[in-house]
Amino acid sequence: METLPANDVIIIGAGAAGLMAALTAANQGQRVLLLEKMDQPGRKLRITGKGRCNLTNTAPLKEFLEHVGSDNRFMRNSFSRFFNQELMDFFEQHGVPLTIERGNRVYPSSGKSLDIFLALVEPIEKHPNITFIKKAEVESLLVSSEEHRIVGVRMKNHESFSTRKVILATGGQSYPSTGSTGDGYRMAQAVGHTVIDCVPSLVPLTCAEPIPDDLIGFVLKNVSLRIEQIDGKRLFEQQGEMTFTADGLAGPLVMSASRIASRPLHQGEQLIAKIDLKPALSNEVLDKRLIHDLDTNGSRILNDAMRMWLPAELIPLALKRLKIEQFKRLNQVNGNERKRLLQFLKGVPFTLTGTHDYPEAIVTQGGVSLKEVNPKTMESKIIPGLFFAGEVLDLDADTGGYNLQIAFSTSVAAGSK
User: Fold this and answer.
1) Which distant-in-sequence residues (6+ apart) come within 8 Å of 324 by Cβ?
2) Per residue in 130-177, pLDDT tens?
3) Which of 26, 313, 314, 325 lies 20 to 30 Å from 97, alpha-carbon distance?
């Protein structure tokens, strides 16, 4: 079946999870065959965090788990074995100094994701227990009909390799140009695994309302974003920074919101985004301020005076939404108009219609069902010898280093004896 010496483990995919799994297995004396379908490994790793690589977060376990979607209890075993401090120690021992930045985010001190990539790839290329083949695309998993367990993999070129252990580390569907095209889902389903429907996550959101040209690219800082269902039920609320795009909303705050909003939007549910431009002020306090400003600036024209409450870029949108005459003097603004202005400042509404697609998604939400995977070892409960690591699993998290930590922790569990 094979053209190489017998392999203790075959790893499919040389992204963050596959690379770490290969090193883990090889350092424990296992003979590893690492297969990567692209011409170069770690493409997504090299562009993550805008090329800076936010590799983990120093939040304590309880707080960290609050940022993990699906069933975060699944990660307790993997994190108990290999968590943020162990990951930081690993890279520092491999010559990569690290820096902790705002929000407990950990980056290489150089600000270059290449350093993280090289700390994984260089030991792999030198390791006597690892055979690394690029441009090697796996077609399917080979399962023994008698034992109903993994016995190898079949390649696209019809070549086959035998083994008693395969680790699927193929990633999800986000950034497909890096090689993450959902291959692992197809292979897992083919041998009987359930794959939870996938949607793009940590991704810009689209809106029904047109975005004025002057607002495209404009950044709002220190605002609160609330996502609601049509009946008013709140799904998400957080403060931070966001921006406008030609067809909707983007930026860190929106990326976080998309993890909650993406699935219902892709299922056809209509959601409302409300932007609180004055999150530090209650409705009552802000209303008193508006009354004061209107009274003491009565002769000023509304179009000009709006600068007291809004950035200039938002004024045309406000006037259009509020349907107030822009040349009206402030002492002519009536109580109903003031109430509409207050509502606008405390919750500029946008009707959400969907998300951008996988090429712009940081992660994939969905994947191999966690119910069918042993959380201690990452081994399939259905097919002995089949293991999973990283984004191929139904695990996703907020931005901030959480997703890469999941990838590294699950890969250490999968790669261990």
Assistant:
1) 302, 333, 337, 340, 341
2) 999 999 999 999 999 999 999 999 999 999 999 999 999 999 999 888
3) 26
